[in-house]
Large ribosomal subunit protein uL1
Amino acid sequence: MKKLTKRRKKTKKLIDLKKLYSIDESIKLLKKSSVVRFIESIDVSINLGIDPKKSDQNIRDSIILPHGVGRFTRVAVFTQGENVQIAKNAGAELVGMEELCEKINIEGVNFEAAIASSDAMKTVMKLGHILGPRGLMPSLKSGTVTNNISEAVKNAKNGQIHYRNDKNGIVHSTIGRINFDENKIKENFNCFVSSIKKSKPPKSKGIYIKKIVLSTTMGFGLIIDQSSLTL
């Protein structure tokens, strides 16, 4: 069994891993227990009552958090013609078509968001094996395949996050930073959970949201008492 470090022993004394915490209690405890020398992310994991083996029960969506996630987002845009300059003016770091694909094939992925105009998808599909596993493949549903390049880039820069369930039916996402004001973390959390609820597949039966866990990059996960939520 892995031995706990002094820091994690100290943190563990502050919390009860089996207890259900209100969102307000959780945020206060995570802030109090963060002792690392960098600004940790605030992460949420939601265990859903779906069958991930059935395509009509998988969820995949995006949302713009009211206070962003507190980090710089590098954006790659696959497009051509006049959209190239539009993407650059909107703030995209990487813009192109075949040459951008070649660059990614050689150098790998060094961006956090990918956007494509509709006429670029045939080219982008060649990168499916690279972008797909990282959750970066542009899609119509997430709004990352669009001819409104300017808006898509600005959304990505302003805290838009894309989420989907994993093979176990769990959705993971970052919703902010530990140095955020408590109210901002709570508002981002509420916005994210509300989006998950709206994405419930019609074929999903029984309890939809089974468990919600809030954590920091290096901290323990706290189970949220869903009865305390006012969503």
